[in-house]
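Sorry to interrupt, but I need a hand with the structure work. I would like you to pick a protein and set down its sequence and fold. Please put the record directly below this note.
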Amino acid sequence: MVSEDLKGALKKFFGFESFKGNQEKIIQNLLNGNNTFVIMPTGGGKSLCYQLPALISEGTAIIVSPLIALMKNQVDAIRNVSDNENIAHFLNSSLSKTEINKVKSDIQNGSTKLLYVAPESLTKQEYIDFLTSVNISFFAIDEAHCISEWGHDFRPEYRRLRDIFERISKVSIIALTATATPKVQLDIQKNLNMVDATVFKSSFNRENLYYEIRPKVDVEKEIIRYIKAREGKSGIVYCLSRKKVEELAELLNLNGINALPYHAGLDASTRAKHQDMFLMEDANIIVATIAFGMGIDKPDVRYVIHHDIPKSLESYYQETGRAGRDGGEGECVVFYSYKDIEKLEKFLQGKPVSEQEIGKQLLHEIVSYTETSVCRRKYILHYFGEQFDETLCKNMCDNCKHPREKSEGKDSVKLLLDSVLALEEQQKPKHICSFITGNLTADIKSYKHDKLPLFGKGSAKDEHFWNAVIRQSLVGGLLQKEIESFGTIRLTEEGRKFVQSPSSFLLIKERKFDEESADFEININSKGGAFDEVLFNMLLDLRKSISKQKNIPPFVIFQEPSLKDMCFQYPITMDELTNIQGVGTGKASRYGAPFLELIKYYVEENEIERPQDLVVKSLINKSGLKVQLIQNIDRKLPLEDIGKSQGKSMDEIIDEIEGIVASGTRVNINYYINDILDPDNQEEIYDYFSEAETDDISLAYKEFDGDYSEEELRLMRIKFMSEMAN
């Protein structure tokens, strides 16, 4: 078909005057009967690459799609560009027998140009037999990364597609994905037996997206603040579990934000309803699971928040890609804590070894991305095999907007590259860091690497530093990661030249999230307020004077997170004080008056506008669980049993009890402590907390030289706080 005819069809069906990027070449290649492989970022116009040729070809195009929601969304969109309601259909488990017969009839009489099918449906013999009897124009595989075990959303049934296609018809195939590393790309082509395919690869750079990582501190409150500062804008919040999705959606609604949950556990009609409400802007926020990919083609999603870290950079790229598809503003914020990575590692246990290795490597990549101080855009594009000059980022990521200091790293990089060579380019980052710092691990011993001359040569710096050097050398093109061998590191040609003739290499100081969260916390609220350092120091002084007067440690009165929250919210009434993190009615009435007086005076003197729209209400059902927890403690049930009944670990139960006690409720767990610690030990720990300046458990652990476990110290701190503070 000539170019003018294609443009005419584009105008007729979609109303566009011209094609975007490679769209025209891709469509022409497919219409010429060639196998076609398209790698195009979300928002680049992938769908049109198979929709338009399907509309103008003889027969029906079969489009394999993994998501029922996405099928519905796309079928609706195609029906809108035609006056024929039957032009597109989907075939999946949500249809009744009558509906399936209607779909078959429309295909047979030639009125259906696009048939969307789930891969599971294609494996059914009755569908194979039916499709063999009709005219197929071509096969399209959307979300083709699902074929690869190295992709972020591997589906075993996708690996059977080539065999099924060959049984149905010998027509050409177009495979499309928004996320494919070079390794995944090759895997897809091999599996589909289309290594001969013409590959069209667009840049992965989404210029309009702003990338930011924040420490996971007070995450729910931060999310509420963030959303309220963007009132009226559409956003998606991703969570790791269905339970968290439900909880967070409920919490947002409680705080006046119209949010809907969306996950695989909801029935199909509820999911469809929530999706439509989001598209129609009856709700601005969708809270969804990471595991359940969202087939929502909404062009004006203005932000994507990750409450939990995704399992891979591909997932992250695809999920953030839902923002700003119209080319307008799109903010991508991740709340990061290494604890989430540990949880994801636990999920991998019990899976086949190769799957565990792949999973761990993907997790390592996402940790490297979140912790790096390199331009985030450069880092993402490097991961997808694309070079990028960070000066073109234009402050569209937190690392470029708030750059960290740089220092000459030539000697460190040379030592790293020499070490990689000494280890025969056979080791992963963790082993290399242990080797350079002189950490005698079991692997180092078994390989006898401690006998090599370079062992421990970089011990003046810690493993965090050397990890950063590895990351920055990878992005700088001196090293590369061997995917096939699960992430072993070797030198590139550039790296070998550097070893022969070292040159200047500036290293950027990396962040340590757990230690310096406050260092770069960017607190946004609707009044543009930030942390009030002056008030914080005044509150610390007041707390100290009250602690001397009452002869109790300062932390017994209010803990530091509570004081910090007061410096954002400026509470001046008892009601407002009970909305402060870790302050219940008991604690507010016992110690609150002088603090409220000081804050009121400070607010009036400095004419401060208080962000009272940001008082975060807590979930009712949580307080129900707390009541249940207190009742179970009153019945003297073992804490482990209480945890099991609520589906929580011992750690989580202790967290809950600490929260209850910190907010001013007395809890008596003596019955449990008496079983694990004798009276002398209890007295020793109790005396320590009586005299301590801080209730920091890590300091207590050091003080006792590890004689008591962290759990024992936390339980004793609960006993102490309950008796002293409440």
Notes: Residues 515-529 have pLDDT under 50 and may be disordered.
